Every structure is written in C-alpha cells, then in structure tokens.
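Budget justification, computational time. The allocation requested in the original proposal was used primarily to generate structure tokens for proteins on the priority list. As evidence of use, we reproduce two of the resulting records. The first is shown immediately below.
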Amino acid sequence: MLGIALGVTALITVLSVMNGFEQELRDRILGMASHASITTFGGKLEDWQGLARTVEGREHVVATAPYVRGEAMLSNGKSVSGALLRGILPEIEDGVSDVVSHITSGSLELLRPGEYGIVLGKELAFALGAGLGDQITVVTPQVTIGPTGAMPRLRRFTVVGIFNVGMYEYDRTVALVHIEDAARLLRMDDSVTGLRLKLDDVFNAPAVSRALSAELVGDYRVEDWTRQHANFFRAVKTEKRVMFIILTLIVAVAAFNIVSTLIMVVTDKQSDIAILRTLGMSPGSIMVIFIIQGALIGIMGTALGVACGVGLALNIETIVPAIEQLFNVKFLAADVYYISTVPSSLQWHDVWVMASVAMVLSLLATLYPAWRAARTQPAEALRYE
C-alpha cells in the first residue's frame, strides 16, 4: 500500500509541477506574443482600422491592436546588437499584451509619435550598456540613395523604458517604439505589418483562426500562438508524457510487490484453501478472495497516494519556500533562472488518469496469484497435514 501511495504521490506532484511550469511559460510567452495575428502575404496591411472593427465583433475576440515589425541593428557607443523592432500604439497595447505590467523603468506612455522614444528589453539594454535617457542608434536594412551611394537608414532614439517579462527570447531581442515612428523608419507609410488579437481563452485560438481564415476575403494570413510556438509546446508535452511513463514504473514496481505478497499468502494458506475446496468452494470463488485482497491493497494505496499527492501539489508553492528557508538554500536562484519559484497547477483530469492506472495495475497484479490459489489441489495440499 505504501509503495503504491508513494508512486501515485510522486506522479501527481511531479506532473502538477510540470503543468505549473508549462502554464508559467505559456503566460510569459503570450504576455508578449499575441493569441492570434492577421497579416498579409505582401507584408503590408492597409486598412487595419476597418479590419479591426470587423474582427472585434467576432465571438471570443476581446481586443485588437496594430503593429509594425522589422529587424534592426542597435548601437550604443561600441556596443552593437541585432533586435526585433516592434511599433505599437501605447494607448491600446495593454489590451493585447502584458508588457505594461512588466515595465521596470520608465513608462510605455513616453512613446510619443515624432519623439523617437524606445523601450528595450532588460537583457538587450544590458548588452548595449544603455539606460534611461541614453541615445542609441537604430539602423534598418532599408537604404537611402544619396550622393555617396546607397546608405542604410538610421535614426537616433532615446531610451524611455526598460521591460523584463522573464523570457530571454523577448528580453534580449525586442525593442518597442511608437507605431508611427516605426512606420516612418521602415517606410511603411500608413500601413502596418499586421493586427494582433487577444481572445477570452487562449485555447480558442486555433478555432478562431480557422474561422477567420475562412471568412476574411483577400490575401490575409491568420496565425495563432499554437502554430507560432508549436515546436516549443510540443517539446514540453513530449517531456510531460515521458515523465508520466517513467513515474508510472514506480507504481508498476509497487504492483509487482502485490504479486510477490499474494503469492506468499497463497503458499502460506494452501491448507486453508484446500479445506475450503473440500467444503465445496469453487475455484472461481477462491480467485475472487485473492482478487479482492489485492484490490483492497490497490484501492487503499491509491486513495492514500491521491490524498497525499493532491495535498502536496496544492501546497507546493508554500512547502518549497519553507524548505528553502529552513535549510538556507535556493533551488532556483533568481539570478540564474528566469522562473525562480516552483509553480504547481493541479489538473483533476491527470489525477483521475493516474488513479485509474494505479488501480488497473493493482488489479492485474492480483490475477496470477489468484489463479495459482484456484489451482490448489486439496489432496496435494493436505497430504502432509
């Protein structure tokens, strides 16, 4: 019973922690990336206002915001770094992303058209050695033809903010500017790169994207976050599945202990089984006795494991800090890991699956010992009694 309880507890706790990390990563990724986006195959979206009015009337769509995107080279003194330049409308950006809540210095409201302000990711600002108020040079691939030939377009921007979303991919590469400044620098005129959408439920994104693709007339391209980050989340799901299989082996070992325990019971109780047989009990009834005994072990072990696992999973975010404080250690140092806490997300579907697997393994483990007990021959068992 304790072996099964330990296996089920480990399964529930570990998978809940993996669910917590997956949810934390998803929230951080979607804090900067959009739930869905609409672009064109030509790379320029002309009438984004009309498209926004059309899309906002759709079910599940909460908010929309235009954006301009382009690659650029940022330099500050001798420091140079590539970056993804994103033009936004600061007044409505909060509707489709969480970047406002992750501003650590300055403000997104300081991005005003014509003033050429820029908000950098924490790691990007560190790589450039730039801080608030510093002037950095933004160089784009577009060229200007002048008397000396083709020259890349460049512009001086003032750092007005720094954000830290906790994802290195964004903190190291993304720079935010006002959408008008980005359009002017990238020669987009009055067009934008695309329209970002925020939905009421991130898991509705595939269905909403398919519906919009079928309904929008023109060369529109609709993508959602499950396609943009498909490889990443597929890897997380594969890791979770493999971990489930590995931890199920703990329950399998405990189930094997049921086999050995019941076989010893059958050997020890052979004379009792023989007497029951001589009194008229059928082999099937003998099997039922040992199946019930093994099933009780499985039920009680599984119930104990579910209780301990659920209790541990629901309180892991309190237990881990308490252990760290008690032993003066830090499992996930904030200066090393972007996620410095151990998150947990208990999903009852996983709990029922784990409990069912444990019960099935326990019942299967009883079949062979019960079959051996049913094959006991009374004459042979009582020969030496």
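The second record produced under the same allocation is shown here.
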Amino acid sequence: MKNAKIGIVLQARLDSSRLPRKSLLPLDGKPLILRVMEALNAVSADVRALACPEDSVAAFQPLAAAAGFALFAGPKDDVLKRYCLVAREFGISHVIRATGDNPFVFADAANDIKTQAIAVGADYAGYAGLPLGGGVEIVSADALFRAEKDAQSPFEREHVCPYLYNHPELFLLHRPLSPREWQGGGARITVDTQEDYERAQALYGALSKAEQEARVSGNWRYTGAAIIKTRARVFGKAGAGESA
C-alpha cells in the first residue's frame, strides 16, 4: 500500500490490579511508561499516540509530551473502541499496537513485521516466538473498524485483537515464527508483577551499562539481539519463575 499511514498507538492505564500504577514506577530514573515510549520511538511511524482512559490523562500528559506522543483519552474498558477513535482522529491506515507494560520492545522486529504486514496486505500481523513483552501487533484500521462493529464479548473489546485472530475466515492473518536470534525461550520481559518489575530494573541497568562499555548509541539497546544477549548474561537462559 503506497499511501499507508502508520500509527503507533500505545495503550496504558494506571489501575493495574496486579501492580497498581506500574506505569509511573521508576525505571532507571524515569517512569516506566516513558521508557516504553522511548523504545517505541525507535520504530518508524507517521503518528505516535498514547491512548488512555480519562482518569489517567493528568498523569500521562507531561510524559507523552516529553516523548513526542500525542495523548488521546477514550473509553476505559472498551479498548477496541479507543483504538478505533485514535485511528479515525489521525487518519491512520495501519496501527502498531503496543502496551504500556513493555519497555523492552524489539524495535527491529517491530519494523520488520510492519513491513511484512503491508507487503502481504495483512489485516493482522505479529511474530510468534518472541519473548513475552518483546513484540507488537500490526492491524489494519479497516479490520479494527469491522471488529468494533461486530465484536460482542467484553474480552474482545478489552483486548482489541481477539476478534480478528479468532476469525481467520474474515481476516488475512500473518503470524510467522520470528527469526531464531529474536526467540526468547519462554522468557518474560513484560512488567505485570512486582517480580517482573524487579527483573526489568536489573535488565534496564545492564543494558545501560553494556551500552556505555561498548560505546554504542542510537537504537542498539532496542534491538532484539541486544536485549536477549544482555538478559541472558544477567539472568541466564530463563529468569526466576520462568520456563526455559
């Protein structure tokens, strides 16, 4: 699609039940949600938006501005509708769906699956085999609008994409296995619990140290190879509480 307009839409909220207000927890001196946006800034896109409920606007507004993201408030529980509102507001043709608990998104993997999705005309695309928290989903706006119209269950509305991948007869799905160098062997690099958060602190610090020691800059720390290699050095093949 020659005229594709790509938008990164990052969903986030403050009232996580397992780790309340985790978006504002510090990660190497900055709030977690800001670190997520910094990682996503290594992914090429035409639009960047942080989509949150109304009750999170005051907390997120200065952080979104600092990262160069537009802030968009929408329904709290109907996250699918929130995405559709953002897509319409900015005239987005393809959404890169990201979530606020993933500060270690593989920017190179995101750029790669985005290119593939557009090339094959996929309604939905996402790599299989990445560590939990390393990937994004690419969804066409038209597919989101159809899901908004037809999806009925609260689960489908809250989690945005289940209606698409549960209806392969309606949508073109592209879900390739990721290249070997990006596969994580069951590792978690998302932040959903206190234990996840403590691991994230250690991993982020190790990435910063490795970056300084190697005297590299730019997007190195947001590549799958850098994150997997650094994580293995800190935690071994799999971290505490994870399967190998």
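A brief technical remark on that second record: Residues 79 and 159 are 7 Å apart (CA to CA).
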